[in-house]
Amino acid sequence: MNNQNEDYEFQVFIHPSQVHNLWQSINEKLKKSVGSKVYDSWLKPLDIVTYDGKKLILSAPNRFFKDRVLSQYGREIELICKKNLPGFSELDIIIQEEPDVAIQDSSTPNTTSIVIKDEENPEDFTHQLDRRFTFDNFIVGKPNELAYAAAMRVCESTSPGFNPLFLYGGVGLGKTHLMHAIGWRISELHKDKKIIYMSAEKFMYEFIKSIRYKDTVSFKEKFRSANILMIDDVQFIGGKDSTQEEFFHTFNELIDNNHQVIISADKSPSDLENVQERLKSRLGWGLVADIHPTTFELRLGILESKVDMLKTQVPQEVLQFLAEKIISNIRELEGALNRVVAHASLVGRKITLDTTQNVLRDLLKSNERRMVTIDDIQSKVADFYHYTVAELISSRRQQRLMYARHMAIYLCKILTSKSYVDIGKKFGDRDHTTIMHSVKKIESELYARPDLREDMDLIKRKLHV
Ligand code: ADP
Ligand code: MG
Question: What pTM was estimated for this model as a whole?
Answer without folding.
Answer: 0.61
